[in-house]
Structures are given as structure tokens and as C-alpha cells.
Amino acid sequence: MTKHTLPIRSLDAKYYTDPALFEREKENGLARTWQFACHVSAVASVGDYYTFSIAGESLFCIRTNDNEIKAFYNVCQHRAHQLVQGNGNTGLIVCPYHAWSYELTGQLRTGPNLRAVEGFDKSTVCLTAVQLENFNGFLFANLDPNAKPMEEWFPRARKELRQFVPQIDQLKPLEWVEIPERCNWKLSVENYSECYHCQLNHPTFSQGIVKPATYDIQPQGYCLRHTTECQNLDKMSYPIDIESNEYAGQYSSWFLWPLMSFQVYPGNVLNTYHWHPVSHNEVIVWRGWYSADDSDIDLLRKLAKQDRETTVEEDIHLVESVQKGMMSRGYVPGPLVIDPACGVKSEHSIKILQEWMRQGIER
């Protein structure tokens, strides 16, 4: 008698609709993973600082006098007032509440009337540091002091990205597009992490950028690697020089769990997605576009506009509809379509992704 394996079903709706689960995953998952902070160009000079958040924590990175970039919790060690807002430049980190001041290294320099405090040793006071890594010019932080380095989380991704974007060290942000979505962040990430829906919902992407028949997604540690060939040149929605280098005719994406993805469009065009969870049913997606010099600015702006008006807009309606469906008492999680051959019509990547999602809540 043949034994049949039951199909793997998608996650229960509670993973996307329960506020309590969202709080748990902030603590167990988002606070223990590598998160994008900013591009290194945001802290290019000594004293430049930039604030960001991870799992509800306010943080900032700053370039020191030794030309290092450090990251700290954005909280004074005296009475817990936040130290900085937004971005800027400073020679000294001064708390607005009582004027306790810190060196750019985070070490306390002085505070009003501290000499009156018997036995006080200012060398014992320092801002609480956070792990920080430079990933090809993109700064990532991790609140877990024992976190393994990014290379162990995302093997080969750093090197591969440099191969696909030879000009990556010269890149600077050209523009950021802010995209509010009324859905759980995991639904948005899932939507990004499969192309099962692409041909039906993204005609510009599937007919004018990539060749769907060659699309596949495979894991590399906690990275999902998307690969495909570019569309036929006479169908491309923008011009590319396919002979410019080895990878110019390919599309590749590195989704770094849980909230950042690097996409390289044909022609070695780098763009990024950065998800910022707001609540259990709200997420802001930042779409970044990067330029190496003035010669490609017009093309990139046109491509960014095309992307926002087509693929991005199409996805907003999809994920917000799914969030509404997750709230329905009529929803019963269906089976994932997992093809052993993988490919564009398979949801094997969602199976992997949902395993990571469970880990981020249940650990």
C-alpha cells in the first residue's frame, strides 16, 4: 500500500493577525537578527550620526575621530533621555536633559556637578553599544551581543553582490520611496519571496525585466537567493548593455532574513527593499535606488517611477487584500505548492520562510 505524505500547509492566520504574537516576534526574532541601519554615506564624515530603530528600540550610528563607525542605543546613561534625533553632525554627544556629554566613542566625558558625587568614576559609564557590520557599504546592526557574524548568517552573499555590482563601492542613495502597506510585515515579505504570482499580477516585471521561465529561488543560510535571466533585449522596458560584464544580462536578489533585500536588475542596477514593521497589521517598505555617477541618474529615476507605478502598486493591493482575508473566519490555510523541480510555479521558498517565521516567535 502506497503511503502518501500530507501536503505542507501555510501558517495559521494568527501569525499575521495576533498583536501578542507580534510582540513576541519582536523580542525573540527581530531583536536577534541583522537589521539594516543606513548606507555608509549617511555617516561619511567624523561626527556624522544617523538614527534608526530595531524591534522598537531607538538606536544611532556615528563616525568616531578614529574613522570607525559605531552603533549605540539612543539613551543617556543618567536618566534615560534620548540623546539624538534624525541625523546630523556633532563633535560631542550631549544629552538635552541634563547636559551629560559623551565622546563619539560613547565614553562619558562629563556632566554638571559630577565632582560632587563621592566615589563616582566616569570611566565606568559608557553608552550601550550594539553590534554593527559594514555589508558592502550598507550598515547592519544586531541587538544580540552574541550574534554570529553576517557571513555565517548569509554565506557568500557579500561576495556575490560585489560580483553583480562591480561599482558598489561608488554607489550612493539616489532616492528612497516610502510605501505604507496595511498588512503584517510577514505577508509583504512572503509576497516578495515567491514569483508564483508574478506572471498574473506583474506584467511589466515578467514581460519587460525578467524571463519567468528561468526564475528560481534557493536558500543560502538565512538568505533567499532569487535568480533569473533578463527578458529578451527587444522586450526590455529599459536599455541595458548586456556585454558590459559577466552578469549584466542576469537578475539576482539576495533577501536577508528578516527585513532587507538587495535586488540587482539586468544592467547591474542595484535597488533595495527594507521592511519596517509598525504593528501587527502595518508595515512601511522603503524602496531604495542607488547611483554611482551622474550618467545613470535619468535612467534610474525613470526605472524607479516605472517600478512604483507597476510592480510596487500591484503588490500593495495584493498584500492588503490578503491581510483582510486573514481576518476572515472562513479562511482555512491551504497547501503550499511545492514542486520538487522548484522554479517559478513553486512555493518552496515560502516553506523555508515560514519555518524562519515560526523560529522568530516560538524560540
Describe the structure.
- The protein is of the alpha+beta class.
- It has 2 domains: 35-142, Rieske [2Fe-2S] iron-sulphur domain (Rieske Iron-sulfur Protein, 3-layer Sandwich); 156-362, Alpha-Beta Complex (Naphthalene 1,2-dioxygenase Alpha Subunit, Chain A, domain 1), CATH 3.90.380.
- It is 25% helix and 28% strand.
- It contains 9 helices and 17 strands.
- A hairpin with a 2-residue loop joins strand 12 and strand 13.
- The model has no long low-confidence stretch (mean pLDDT 93).
Please sum up the structure shown.
This protein has about 375 residues and is α+β, with helices and mostly antiparallel strands.
Helix percent reads 10-25%
Strand arrangement within the widest β-sheet reads: 1-10-9-4-3-2-5
Low-confidence stretches: none
Structural class: alpha+beta
**What would you call the shape?**
globular
CATH topology of the largest domain: Naphthalene 1,2-dioxygenase Alpha Subunit, Chain A, domain 1
Total helical segments: 9
Write the CATH homologous superfamily of the largest domain.
Naphthalene 1,2-dioxygenase Alpha Subunit, Chain A, domain 1
How many beta-strand elements?
A: 17
* N-to-C SSE string, H for helix and E for strand: HHEEEEEEEEEEHHEHHHEEEEEEHH
Mean pLDDT: 93
Strand content: 25-35%
Largest sheet entry = 7 strands, antiparallel
Rounded to the nearest angstrom, the distance between the terminal CA atoms is 38 Å
CATH class category label of the largest domain: Alpha Beta
Tally of structural domains = 2
